[in-house]
Write a structure and sequence with these properties.
The complex is a heterodimer.
Chain A lengths: L7 H40 L4 H15 L3 H20 L9 H26 L4 H8 L4 H31 L11 H12 L2 H30 L4
Helix pairs in contact in A: 1-2, 1-4, 1-6, 1-7, 2-4, 3-4, 4-6, 5-6, 6-8, 7-8
Chain B lengths: L20 H33 L5 H15 L3 H15 L2 H8 L4 H27 L3 H9 L4 H16 L1 H14 L11 H12 L2 H30 L9
Classes of the chains: A mainly alpha, B mainly alpha.
Chain lengths: 230, 243
């Protein structure tokens, strides 16, 4: 069954696959994860702020993003970002945005909706007495969040946040629809150039599988270690 | 913004000669729903079997369930679709591979099976959690009444577990609908695919994607509302979700 397969094609493509493809995928995952976490926390704070209007806006944003397929959102931002850039910079025509910037913005905005739900659960898991005590000590709202609530919420939710990041890592493969050479895109380019679809896609599958497996195993270990005994 | 808006585009004939652009999007919606429903049936069947296996006392069954879930959860859906679509026909015996490749509607069947198996891992995890949340006494009572393991699951554990996990199953079904959009990469012209080709033919990017977005939101709302009714209909008195 594997007799007429040529696995040497993988060895020859390795530098391209990893230096170009995997670097793109991992950079996108890391930056989008970080950006999504920051925006997501902001959205979660908006929802829990007690200001009705802010809460409504944040809620609508989250529900909206979560009802759309990621592929559609990728297309949306790919075409929309040049116009937004034009509007911000006041240029006379839509500005050209690189593939990386476009997909980074997409994933930050998309993941923010998912991260915000996790952070919201994390913030709500802190007992009411803590912000009350911080308030009694004379801390402002910002200080309460910065020194009391968010560090604990973040720590409680770390395993879930990391699991979501693994999902994000897998989802970045969808930039394939924009013909961007991320890891899968690079594998697919080589596959089509050399007519070796089977070898390249099998290899891509093994690489994604190995990384995700190792990462989720690590998350499980971490979860056992940092669990706070109550 | 110097974008040329033209909302009337939906009522202009599309270049494929299949009616208007709106008809194109609606045929995409039909295909999205067909694929999602078939995928969901596959996900429910395999997810239930695997989910139950993960709760059985047998080590072998547990490990099979574990491997199944890890296998389908740790690969991007896109890669899984490529494996089903490009790789599987090549690895099968020649005759079977050729038959598979010449199948009419190959993208549709591949998408339904690929998304279905991908989602089955998630359904399995939910069901395992649902069965795990039942008090131990239920299984013991079933055994004490003389029910076999099979009967215990059929008449006692599963009817409870499925009711408990109905809300998370709703969001998994919504995920199934959304995930069918990934099949655009193997040439399935579902809703996102039709919006994309409408954009390519007419250059009306934002109208096409706005329409697709609204349709997805509508589908979401319909599913969520009908599942609320179902939840109330099957609720067990005395439970939090009960009447």
């Amino acid at each position: 069954m594997f007799s007429n397969l040529d696995f040497d094609v993988i060895r020859r493509a390795l530098p391209y696959l990893f230096y170009e493809g995997m670097t793109f995928t991992l950079t996108l995952t890391a930056l989008a994860g970080l950006g999504g976490l920051i925006f997501g926390t902001a959205i979660a704070l908006m929802r829990l702020s007690g200001y009705k209007v802010l809460g409504r806006i944040a809620g609508v944003y989250v529900d909206f993003m979560r009802s759309l397929p990621l592929v559609l959102v990728i297309f949306w931002f790919y075409f929309l970002v040049p116009y937004i850039g034009q509007w911000i910079t006041g240029a006379s025509r839509p500005i050209s945005v690189g593939a990386f910037a476009s997909s980074l913005i997409t994933f930050i905005m998309f993941e923010a909706a998912y991260f915000s739900e996790i952070m919201r659960a994390g913030i709500q898991s802190i007992s009411r007495g803590q912000p009350a005590a911080a308030n009694a000590l004379g801390l402002t709202y910002a200080q309460t969040m910065r020194y009391v609530v968010l560090p604990q919420a973040f720590r409680n939710m770390l395993p879930v946040l990391l699991t979501q990041t693994i999902v994000l890592f897998q989802d970045t493969s969808l930039v394939y629809v924009l013909s961007i050479p991320d890891f899968l895109g690079a594998a697919s380019k080589v596959a089509q150039r050399d007519g070796r679809l089977v070898e390249m896609y099998l290899f891509a599958a093994v690489v994604y599988f190995t990384i995700s497996c190792v990462a989720s195993f690590g998350v499980r270990r971490l979860q056992a270690r940092i669990a706070i005994i109550r | 913004m110097n974008y040329h808006w033209n909302w009337g585009i939906f009522f202009e004939p599309n270049p494929m000669g299949t009616g208007t652009y709106l008809d194109m999007l609606l045929s995409g919606l039909a295909l999205t729903l067909k694929t999602a429903v078939l995928a969901w049936i596959i996900a429910l069947i395999f997810g239930s079997i695997v989910g139950v296996m993960r709760t059985l006392p047998s080590r072998a069954a547990y490990w099979f369930g574990f491997c199944w879930v890890e296998f389908f959860r740790n690969m991007p859906l896109l890669v899984q679709l490529f494996l089903w679509f490009f790789v599987l026909p090549e690895l099968l015996p020649k005759a079977a591979g050729t038959w598979l490749k010449q199948l009419p509607n190959a993208p549709f069947w591949t998408a339904a099976i690929g998304v279905g198996f991908f989602m089955s891992a998630r359904v399995a995890v939910q069901l395992q959690a649902g069965i795990g949340s039942l008090p131990r006494g239920q299984k013991m009572a079933a055994t004490a009444l003389g029910l076999t393991t099979m009967q215990g699951y059929r008449y006692v554990l599963l009817p409870m577990a499925f009711r408990i996990i109905l809300p998370p199953l709703t969001s998994e079904f919504l995920n199934t609908i959304k995930n069918t959009a990934v099949a655009i990469t193997i040439g399935l012209l579902e809703l996102t695919g039709q919006a994309r080709s409408m954009q390519e033919f007419s250059f009306q990017v934002f109208e096409a994607f706005t329409a697709a977005t609204l349709i997805y939101l509508l589908v979401n709302a319909v599913v969520v509302t009908s599942m609320r009714f179902l939840e109330r209909y099957v609720a067990i008195p005395g439970y939090i979700t009960g009447k």
